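Sample A.
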Amino acid sequence: MDIFPKCPQCEEGRLLPFSRGEDIFELWKCSHCSYTVYKK
């Protein structure tokens, strides 16, 4: 069972959380294609 969501762009990688400040889940990057999601 994978705890991280699948990448919506490449469908191969997983979105992994990266922190740029206090919010741990502010930035998500794909482990395969470098697709990035920013939380608003």
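Sample B, a different protein:
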Amino acid sequence: MQLTSLIDRLKSHHGEFLCESFSGEKKKISFYHLTEKSLTTPQLPDCGRLTDFYDTFGGILFYLEPESGEAARYIAPVHEWEILRNKISKWFVMDEDEREEILPKWIDTALVLGNIPGTGNFILMPTEGSTRGHIYEFDHDGFEFSDMAADLIAYTERLLQLDLPMLANFASHMRFITETPDQQWMIRGMSDNRENVLRLES
């Protein structure tokens, strides 16, 4: 089922990151979300509102800054899932005892739906177990699997309504290089066209 209201919310949402350079200069850097048109997809697993999402979008690049190409999250088209699976599997080369100790039981059958650009971290959905259909973010630094939302639509909606912890996560990996190649800009806050204003502590 195509979610027209979610399309409208994504396409109309935009704002600015409030940024600071290493030298202490301030700058506002605009963002928006880049959506891909929904295409005919093969039969998807009946979990996590996958069908609703992919009936609505082919994929989404969240919080894109077009000049630098930096973005916060990427939900990929279905045809890219296998590529992402091959990439994440490189983190899981370990013996059976390590796998049992470190990895969740659902890891081998989980879908790898997207990634956190530029980090080597990924977005997954278990297809079995008690958290079937939930959205997890995998952080390879410490092998952390964080349960982020009950399904893919809820995850999308969470990304559209940022809170301070999520903005702090963005700030930990996003760096903007714009007109001056040797100068990087770090996120210190955010404001959008829906009156959401956030400030991170220095």
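Observation for Sample B: The radius of gyration is 18 Å.
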